[in-house]
Amino acid sequence: MSTTEFADLAAAALERARKDNAEAVTEAAGLIVRTIRADALVFSAGAGHSLAAVAETFYRAGGLANVYPLYHEELLPLHGAQRSTGAERRSGLAAEVLSAKAPGADDLLVVFSTSGVNPYPVELAMAAREAGAPVIAVSSRASVEAAPRRSASTLVEQGTIVLDTGIRPGDASYPADNPVTGPLSTVVNAFLWSLVLTATLEQAAAEGVEVPLWRSSNVDGGDAANAALFERYQPRVPMLG
User: Which residue intervals define the domain SIS in the entry (predicted)?
Assistant: First the structure.
């Protein structure tokens, strides 16, 4: 019965996220359409396991081609678990990462952080806002409220638009009365991002804007379809090399 119960918990979390963020998803899609119109970039960022969401935004079949992923290897647990925790808590790392390339006023920053209190995601958002770029904060208000403050602000406070994942503090969801496993943040992050992408496609079509979307390289015609996107964006997004 445990797998069925967890599946129900996961399904309920996705449905809550859909309902609670309906308006914010529409607004987030509008910001992306604005960015595409300006031939600008969507910067994507996260730390720790939120980097899974960043990977979901970048060079992904069905995903946006104008995405610039912000990354530092110390933030990835695969390069050192404890080091990754320390990195996102270190003030100044955001400025270091942005020194290579930072959002401008026509660009957009999307930051994924469930707790939303560590210096790295908060300082990224603050820097983008100071540069005039809007920020989509994908975070959990409940987790932010419960987490210890490590910055002068929070990601939720810095977001132009907030997509609330609703993830409970600690991320675990199962068993419901005393959760110790079954983390849902990655699942909900990916779901909300896909909702934003589909809303973007709908809004863009209504406005006559073409959305630059990757095709899978493992289907007929995929490589040929992607060639123009590489030519257009690789000079600005070196990670596409």
Answer: 32-209
Tens digit of pLDDT for each residue in 6-54? 999 999 999 999 999 999 999 999 999 999 999 999 999 999 999 999 9
Contact of 153 with 127, CB cutoff 8 Å: no
Residue 236, CA distances (Å) to 42, 103, 117, 130, 240 in order:
11, 12, 30, 22, 9
Q: Say which amino acid occupies 73.
A: E
- Cβ neighbours for 67, distance < 8 A, ≥ 6 positions apart: 41, 42, 43, 44, 57, 58, 59, 237
Burial 75-98 (b: 16+ CB within 10 A, else e): bbeeeeeeebeebbebeebbeebb
Nearest residue to 121 (alpha-carbon basis) of 144, 95, 96, 88? 88
User: What is the residue whose two structure tokens read 């959760």?
Assistant: 179
The pTM assigned to this predicted structure is: 0.97
